[in-house]
Amino acid sequence: NQAIAEAMRQINYDVVAAYPISPQTELMGFFAEYLVNGLVDTEFVTVESEHSAMSAVIGAAAAGARAMTATAAQGLLYMYENLPIASNWRLPITMVLVNRALSAPLNIHCDHGDAMTARDSGWIQLFSENSQEAYHNLIMAVKIAEKALLPTIVNMEGYIVSHTIGNLNLLTDKEVREFIGESDWRKNVPYPLLDTDNPKTYGATALPDYYTELKYPQHLAMFEAKEKVKEVLSEFNKLAGTDYHIIEPYKLEDAEYVIVVMGSTAGVARTAADILREKGIKAGVLKIRLFRPFPAEEIIEALKNAKAIAVLDRHDSVNGLASPLFEDIATSMFHLMERPF
User: Fold this and answer.
1) CA atoms of 169 and 180, how far apart (whole Å)
2) How far apart are CA 216 and CA 182, in angstroms?
3) Phi, psi of 139 (to 5 degrees)
4) Closest CA to 15 of 46, 53, 45
5) Run of H or E residues at 73
6) pLDDT confidence band for 147 (50 / 70 / 90)
7) I need a surface site. Which of 168, 188, 197, 296 has the fewest CB within 10 A?
């Protein structure tokens, strides 16, 4: 949480709006300290609900501001009504989703149920294995959102990542701000509401004929966003000396059995693969960083030679068929003549 707040300080957003919910509350608490101490000049809007938080950043982004929010679990569900508005309007909002199980029963610890509710909302989604990646992912997410003109979620698992203390390699403020570029309301969105010399209408009614025409460019933009994510990751790798990719294989060159994961489970999965290899079993791991848009082609290439695949979801779709990541993986592999088990 403090790593995310530090990234927020370095980014120095124009507008941040948030409502407290565990395990996100501490994140905004750290950022509020930076604000009070004069380390940022962000307009920090303390709203009365998560629905209002998303409403506030939508309005800010439509005006051309660089805007973000953060939430978890029920908080995301409360703001969900506004998620498609942000993506349909092609607003480059960033949101940190501190993954938490959905009630009931009340459980403030982690699964990916909240992230999975947003998988069809038109938001780009990145997953973080640890606090270092969460810090880096948010910095990259600003640039990804503004290049793709699509809102972007940075997923960070509640307590497992959000409240774990560890070492962090920080970029300098200058490096972060040069990487993301200066915030300029005339450039952040194509049609800013503040451009009163060229007035625009947002949120007009569109009947089915025009609605379809308006939705299709958004559909294409999500597919095209994958290449933009790759571009940003490549640029960031040169800056930070990292080796981030949209999918990250581990010992897959000769792997017969592969564990597919997202988030913090990747570390445990790699250890499990190492133990299996000590026993003579050719095991490997595929970590997925980019969940939406789903990198099907890259995943097929990485998994096509495996004998068997274990997909470890942290969510149950409760639909009697399979969990979300498994369904995406199975659908991707279905057309192969010889498919893994």
Assistant:
1) 18
2) 30
3) -60, -45
4) 45
5) none
6) very high
7) 197
Q: Is the Cβ–Cβ distance between 75 and 64 less than 8 Å?
A: no
Angle at 42 between CA 40 and CA 44, to 5 degrees: 125
Alpha helices in 93-207 (DSSP H): 113-117, 131-148, 173-180, 185-188
Output phi, psi for 126, to 5 deg.
-115, 145
**Burial of 308 by CB count in 10 Å (0-12 exposed, 13-18 middle, 19+ buried)?**
exposed
Please tell me the distance from the alpha carbon of residue 339 to that of residue 150, in angstroms, as a whole number: 34
Question: Under DSSP, is residue 222 helix (H, G, I), strand (E, B) or coil?
Answer: helix
Full-model pTM: 0.97
State the DSSP code for 307: S
Please report the pLDDT score of residue 203 as a whole number.
86
**Is residue 323 within a helix (H) or strand (E), and if so which, with residue range?**
none
Report the alpha-carbon angle 95-127-307, nearest 5: 155
